[in-house]
Every structure is written in C-alpha cells, then in structure tokens.
Amino acid sequence: MNLKSLSLPELAAALEPLGAPPPAVALKIFAAVFARNARAVEEVGFAPQVPRAVREALLARASLPRLEVVERRRAADGFVKYLFESPLGGRVEAVRIPLFDEKYVVCVSSQVGCALACDFCMTGKLGFSRNLETWEMVDQVLAVRAEADRPVRGVVFMGMGEPLLNYAESIRAAQILRHPAGPAISGKAITFSTAGHVPGIRRYVREGHPYRLAFSITSAIPEKRAALMPVERTYPLPELVEAIREYAAVRHQRAMLAYVCIRGVNTGREDAQALKRAFEGIPVKIDLIEVTDPTGRYLPPTPEELSRFRDELQILRAPIARRYSGGKEIGAACGTLEASARGGEVLAP
Ligand code: SF4
Structure pTM? Predict the structure, then answer.
C-alpha cells in the first residue's frame, strides 16, 4: 500500500479490510502523509486515534517512497530548479517559482521525458520513457515545500511531459494536492498545460474538474505549427480549437493560450492574423513566453519584435500577458537540466 498514491476516499477504502476503522482515522493518516510530510510509516501509524490493528497492518504493508534530490540550482531571481531521481527509475525536474515575494508556485513534471517532440523543447529531445505515478508528482511538491521559506500556493503541470497523456495519475495527484487535509492548494491554483491532446481535453471537460487548463498553441498556421509541434499532425488545429471552445463555454471563462515566441519564426503580422481567424468568437487570453533553447537553434524575439507582435495581437481584443521566464541562467525551462549541465550555482542535495 503506497500511502502517497492514495486519495482520501481510496485510502479509506484500503483501510476497510483492516477492520473498518472510523473515517477520522483515514483523515489522520492522510494528513500525516500530505500535510505533515511524514518521512516514515512509523510516523503515520502512531497517532492515538489509529487502532492497533490498523497500525500493525500499516507497518507491515504500507510504504512511503520518496524522490531523491539529485541537484538544486538557484537563480538570482529566486527561481530554484530541482532534479529528482525516482526509485522507480528516471530523472525528472521541478521548478520553484517565487510570486510577489510572498508565495511559491511549483512547476512539476508528469512524465519521464515526453513523446510529443516539440522542436523547441529539450524534454522533447530526450524522448519518452514512462508515465510518472501519482506519488511521484505529489512528492515533487512535498519536497519543494519541505524546504521553502514561504507557502506553496500553486502547482502547474508544465514541466516534463504531457499531463493529459498521463491523465488518471495526474488528476489523482491534483485531487490529493487540493485536499484541505493535505497540501491544501486551491483547485483554481492548479493548472495543467497541454500541447493539444484533444481526447484528453474533451474528457477533462466532460468530467468537470475544478483545475485550469492552459493550451500551448505557438502557431495558428497549421504547417508552421506542425513543424514546431508534431502533435498538430495527430490533432489538427481545427479540432483543438473546437475542444478549447467547449472548455471556455463550460467554464464560463477565457481559455489561456500559451504562445512560445521564437525570433523570426512566429511573431509576424500573419501569425497574429492566423490566431485571430482561428479563435474568432472564443474568449481567450494570451500568454507570451520567450523560447528557451540551450542549443541556440531557436532564439527569443528581440524586445522590438516582441513589442511589435503584442501590438499586432491587439486585433484579437484579448488580454495579453508576457510570462516572465525566470531562472534563465539555471536552465529553468523543462528538460534543460537533465539534458544539459550548463550554468547555475549547484547546491548540495
Ligand atoms: S513542450 Fe511539453 S509537450 Fe512539447 S515536448 Fe516539451 S514537454 Fe512535451
């Protein structure tokens, strides 16, 4: 019984055969694991409310695995990047992002590597190894929180991997993260970023989860998008746009479009016009992100180019934000730490 992979209802069900302890016992154990970050099963089982039979069964059968911190890099702007190694095999990255000097958001990975092979992404170049289990996603947050000097108030699944291709485990991780007796992160502060896995978006909309989705678009010109994001060949833009339309309609809110800006590639007038045509009538907001490519093949736009593109995007009549890409010198973009050993102050694990 892996106590870090069970939501509260699943934990209560797992405890049933051990003598049907009262629901409060499951709640105590859940809180010990996720709110108090118990390091060993012994720390979980000794609460006075836990009956002896349950305690003995937990000590005999339960496990509390942990990711090992292999490396930390701290950037001057407060971003900290973590490289974890899992006992199940493989390394994944997470980033601690400071917000308003008062809280942190943690960017977590959902897969070891990624199969979607976006051309500007280092993780895409690593290829796909496996899906992470629920506990491996939750433990990234617990490990960062354990050494944070401010509370962790948000989680974004924007690290390595496509979370909607690891759907059930990612949703269960979010369910655990938002539970008030656990890490207690508001559902509205949990975001899944998708490169455009249309069946996953549709399922998400059907199931009506409280979390947010962000949609990586990067070009609304199909040929250009296919060259940058091969997922376009499987789920072409018109299908993706329809799924986003449904999401926005059901949520009664603007859909967040993430747009990775690349110098001389996707920041022209025709790119802005293509976005307008594709998303006509859909309430969206646009998040501009400057590409980070340690290989130097793709460069971020110049300040003038970015400013011109922002002006061009006014035709969409949508809110536009420029997302601060922090931690540049430590390779905070996903995949760069695992794929490259460049730069940054290396802290002892
Ligand atoms: S950008 Fe995201 S979806 Fe694309 S290859 Fe990288 S991790 Fe995968």
Answer: 0.92
